[in-house]
Amino acid sequence: MDEVTISRAILETYTKDFVERLDTDVAIAGAGPSGLTAAYYLAQAGAKVVVFERQLCPGGGMPGGGMMFNRIVIQEEGKHILDELEVHLSEYQEGVYVADALETISSLCVKTIRTGAKIFNLISVEDVMIREDRITGLVLNWSSVVWSKLHVDPIAVRSKFVIDATRHDSELCRIVTRKIGPRLITESGEVVGEQPMWAEVGEQEIIKNTKEVYPGLLVCGMAANAVFGSPRMGAIFGGMLLSGKRAAELCLNKLRISK
Ligand code: 48H
User: Fold this and answer.
1) What residues form DSSP beta bridges with 251?
2) Which protein residue's CA is at the shortest distance from atom 5 of ligand 1?
3) Is residue 92, in this structure, part of any structural domain at all?
4) CATH number of the domain that residue 19 is part of
């Protein structure tokens, strides 16, 4: 095997996939549980989806479980998603299930990729594109460039919808308010900020917080609770999966209308 053949195989196939996703239906920032679940359901329904993940590995907070005990808790409402992903669950008590965090995130990744979504790791979303009061795409750079503070200009992808799945920091929403002022659909127009831990309320509110917060920009997962000022919930993950699924459903409805 010739080394240059190996290099050419990597570069040509990667570039082909990337170029093919420069124009998409939905571009997602963050490959944690909520972003990946959104990508899975969107791709499954036939949408053209791309996910950009800053870190080396996808998964966000899921591999860490609760305080590095790599188990996650799922309530009854989220169970059907893990059943669909073929993740093993043990019933800890009535309506309370436990899954291996690594099995869950691995399965989510595999299923998401096999439905046709593309995940690009080691790429950070550093800005958004806005045209006529609508988000129209994401601005990207290599994470290594961002971390080493090199002066390298970014590139951009165009997308009918973008999803902010960047957890507590809700980075895309913060970029919007920083650049064009308090224009989100929250009461103040700003990111309200996440509240202290209250698992039950956090898990309930995350679903209603999952929505389009500015034309073309949806928010899901922890970012949704941060944007609307709802509590965090610790290592229960049903809400993350359900929020990702909800974001996918909202995008699909809107894509059908605008297609
Ligand atoms: C590219 C980015 C960028 C960027 C961030 O943290 P996550 O797992 O987020 P969720 O919302 O899917 O899940 C939250 C869950 O893991 C969690 O933390 C819970 C339930 N906490 C409860 C509590 O009480 O704390 O994943 C977000 C991903 C990460 O992998 C980041 O690296 C990535 O987004 N990311 N990727 N460009 N600008 N910002």
Assistant:
1) none
2) 166
3) no
4) 3.50.50.60
Residue 90 lies in a domain: no
Task: Dump pLDDT digits (tens) for 78-113.
Answer: 999 999 999 999 999 999 999 999 999 999 999 999
pLDDT in tens, 127-175: 999 999 999 999 999 999 999 999 999 999 999 999 999 999 999 999 9
202 lines ligand 1 (CB under 6 A): no
Q: pLDDT class for 259, splitting at 50, 70, 90?
A: very low
Q: How many domains does the chain have?
A: 1
* Exposure on the CB side of residue 126, measured as CA atoms within 13 A: 17
Q: With 0-12 CB in 10 A as exposed, 13-18 as middle and 19+ as buried, what is 185? A: middle
Burial label for 77, CB within 10 Å (0-12, 13-18, 19+), is middle
Ligand 1: which of 205, 222, 241 to mutate, most ligand atoms within 8 Å of CB? Answer: 222
Q: Domain of 128?
A: 3-60+105-227+239-258
Substitution site in 167, 194, 220 for ligand 1 pocket (most atoms within 8 Å of beta carbon): 167
**Rounded Cα distance, 184 and 209, in Å:** 12
Please indicate, yes or no, if residue 28 is contained in any of the structural domains: yes
Q: How far apart are CA 117 and CA 13, in angstroms?
A: 15
Establish if 100 belongs to a structural domain.
no
Helix (H, G, I), strand (E, B) or coil at 254: helix
Task: Indicate if ligand 1 lies below 6 Å from the C-beta of 172.
Answer: no
Strand 96-100 relative to strand 90-93: parallel, antiparallel, unpaired? antiparallel
- Radius of gyration of the chain, Cα coordinates, nearest whole angstrom: 18
Alpha-carbon span 211 to 218, nearest angstrom? 5
